Amino acid sequence: MNLSISTLILLVATGAIIGTNANTTTVPESSIYRLNSHVLPISYDIWLKPYLLATDGERRFTFDGEVNVTLYATQANTSEITLHAHLINLANISLYNDSNAEELLQTFTYSDIAYDGDTHQLTLILKDQLTLKNKFRLRFAYTGQIRDGMQGFFRANYTDHEGNEKWIGVTQSQRIDARTIFPCFDEPALKAKFSLQLSRPKNYRTVFNTELLESIPDGDDRMLDRFAATPPMSTYLVAFIVSEFEEYGSDELKIITRAEYQNKTHFAYEVAERAINAYDAYTQQPYKELGLDVMQMAGSPKFPHNGMENWGLVIYTDDVLVNEPDYTDGWSNKEYTLSVIVHETAHMWFGNSVTFAWWSYFWLNEAFARYYQYFMAHQLYPEYHLDQQFVVNQIHLIFGIDAVGSTQPMTSPEESINTPSEIGYKFSSIAYAKGAAIIRMIANLMGLDNFDNAIRAYLKEYYLKNTTPEDLFKHLKQHWPSSHQVDLDAFFHDWTEQVGFPVLFVNINDKHEIELTQQRFILGLGDGSNDTLTYTIPITYATNVESDFNNLTARFYVPNNMNKTFTVDKPFKWIIFNLQQSNYYRVFYDMTTLKHIKTALSMKQHDGIPPTNRAQLIDDSFNFARIAMMDYDEVFQFLEYIENDTDYLPWYATFSNMQFVAQRLTLQQQSLFVKYLDDIMTKIYTHLGFTRSNETVLDIYNRNKVVSWACKYHLFKCGGQAQEFFNTSIKVGNKPTPDFRETLYCSATRDGAFFYYQTLNEWFEKEKLNSEKKKLIYAMGCTRYFYAYHYARILNGDIPSDYAAAGITPMYAENPENVEPVFIMITNTSERLAERIGWPSVANVIKDIANYLTTPEQKQILDDFVTEKGEYFGNSFSTLQIATATVELNLEWAKLRLPKLIHYFEKRNSAGRKSVTVILLIFVCIIQWFL
Ligand SMILES: *[C@@H]1O[C@H](CO)[C@@H](O)[C@H](O)[C@H]1NC(C)=O
Ligand SMILES: *[C@@H]1O[C@H](CO)[C@@H](O)[C@H](O)[C@H]1NC(C)=O
Ligand SMILES: *[C@@H]1O[C@H](CO)[C@@H](O)[C@H](O)[C@H]1NC(C)=O
Ligand SMILES: *[C@@H]1O[C@H](CO)[C@@H](O)[C@H](O)[C@H]1NC(C)=O
Ligand SMILES: *[C@@H]1O[C@H](CO)[C@@H](O)[C@H](O)[C@H]1NC(C)=O
Ligand SMILES: *[C@@H]1O[C@H](CO)[C@@H](O)[C@H](O)[C@H]1NC(C)=O
Ligand SMILES: [Zn+2]
């Protein structure tokens, strides 16, 4: 659906109002979305008067606006000006000579104006052609809405510490909403300078991209704030806030939030300060020399993104800036703060100074921001090991998305991205996560020093300009070591213009020849993915005799249309390809080679094979098994090595992949699986325990996963230990650290007496902080024995419906043995549940449980439910259909993929029992011998 500008009201000079529908004027049949560049903007002088107060009456949440756009023609015979406007009511449009602002050239009347509601293009037909050498001033007077959504100029409310409801006006111009705030040439390449005058109630404060120049009285208890001009920048970076927030910090770096947050933003402030200094040094273009003296970071109670990099005024969702002591100041909260701030700060260079030329190249902004969010942040805060975390958080995650038919290339052809929804399509995790992975691959291959030099040269050449990928590649090529034998054009094409990534197949024969071949990795066979794509593959490897895992320079490149057979000089026991998983592909080893790797992994210190590569081996194996390139018994056999692994990354890869299998096991199969889990988890569980001295941040992260899996499957008396730890914590009056809180609460409540449920419920009722209430309600839902009581409280409204969904999920997700009874309970009470949360949410609950259904009987219950109650669901019926399809798919998949695994578990378990029998026999013999 396209929102149109609604009614274009034209107030002609005489004061008469002509109302007309925008599309009464002729619009070309196939709309052209791109502006021609016959006229270009130089600067915008904007004046806005927003009405935010209850006393503003009918005008509340609207604004008056005026803008002067200074522009010039690039071509002779220019007889039209076309620019963007959307969702604003234009009242007066006139054209002046810029050098003599008094000289009115034309006042536009209805017949001079055409508007296209699809393209948001406003075309003004000129009486006289624009002369080439002059500048002109196009003046608009208009009104608009302070919107309810989270786009353009929008409103947000919060309750202050005295319990009063407060409203702020805040902006999000990206992607294409600057045009809803003022008429403009709303394309990223059409950079201009922006100045703002903003009228506000006296007790409010305004902030804009730039520094405040002056505030002057503006009648009626209002003030007019006048701000300096921005450097030339894209329209999507324009930002301002009207609020009662406080401002603190220095002249150079300020934080703008609600007053009561001031003392909770110290960490955010420190991060920003360090990040700016680090980028200043790294880019050799200090922030202040880019064009603005000040960096302001504002928090909003309601915001569509974690952060938006508006130049000089980065707006964050409050959670990023605010670390509540004892609540949201754990390591993981700080990692979030740190990642987002380092990301947004990177954009000052990558995006704000140097901007993609068009949305089809959006990754040129985001790939860098995501890359530095890990690797610059790692320089500043090494304790988070973000360099390692990148592999599991970004690469393994994006591999799932880049292996199905719906993926997209990083770079799309410019002409294929035109409409608002096509622009939206490029805002994909491919631009961010794959982009960052490809940047990392490039940086490591060419060498970090070369890469850094290339980036500096790129930032310097295109300072305040726009770029295409070719502009970046030009600098990368110039700094790429000439000794490397690689076709860089093919390399860049393969990884940025093609979708997907390959599996490198490694086959070693008895003559020790290594044969390398490739094929694209595709998860959804038959989903339209092109399986013939090939890639220029950089080869890195290490062996037990040449075990430098940190040299990420390619030994050689395999061209996209070739295979390669080679030998390694020094004989080796094991070989690992794709060191640190620095290159964007999976590796499939022949079974003998994989066995040798497993042997190495089982040795002391895993024979020097680092956590990133261990995580890669695990993630690859599980994914190969998922699509039958391997069997699960082989994966779980390989995974046995992990019983001696205590690092976070391999366990992260294990848990996140094992979930896919565990969820699809019947209860009966699960008992076999649990025995296996018991074996591989004994050491890590003991190693981490509930507390541990000298623990690292990654140990703390790992404990969450280890304890939560151990307790979920009732291993190692985990539940009892969780209860004990819980009791001790509350006895000394200390809640456990925010990092471990949800896991501990859930684990203690699961098998615990009613006391645990009750305690959490008391806390829940007293608690004010939303994020903490969510943790508590989730933990309450973990109860294995009192779930029916818990559920009844959801149904009767004792638990507010806002928290219902968070309270229902753990009932089945955290208790595999309760999946069926909970499912039956919910299907039997669907009407009552719908009264609380509505049918669409009930449908979502059913869809989620469907992921855990594993037997034909359970499928039958679902089918019966859909037949019986389907009609109540209205539009959400399609959600139920997804649920049915999911169960069907899962049952079928399990039938095909699991038998060998089950057999392996059985064999393994009975082998274990056999050795116990042997010992018993020996024992009996010895006793007999003594007798
Ligand atoms: C404007 O366009 C819309 C959609 O294209 C159409 O439904 C409507 O009738 C048009 N209005 C006029 C006045 O032509
Ligand atoms: C626009 O320019 C006119 C003079 O041409 C001036 O009177 C008016 O104040 C300007 N408006 C803004 C917002 O700068
Ligand atoms: C914000 O406004 C909405 C709509 O008026 C209201 O439902 C909500 O309770 C308000 N939130 C706060 C925190 O005041
Ligand atoms: C912040 O802390 C300082 C010193 O502890 C205190 O003086 C100040 O009042 C606090 N500010 C707010 C807004 O709580
Ligand atoms: C698959 O990719 C190859 C190589 O780019 C291309 O030649 C071929 O046309 C593609 N096939 C389809 C069905 O798109
Ligand atoms: C890193 O590996 C490359 C490729 O094998 C090699 O040419 C280079 O000498 C190695 N560098 C170091 C420091 O070992
Ligand atoms: Zn970003």
TrEMBL record:
GO terms for cellular component: cytoplasm; extracellular space; plasma membrane; side of membrane. It is found in: Cell membrane. The keyword Signal applies. Its EC number is 3.4.11.-. Residues 41-237 form the Aminopeptidase N-like N-terminal domain. Binds 1 zinc ion per subunit. GO terms for biological process: peptide catabolic process; proteolysis. This is Aminopeptidase.
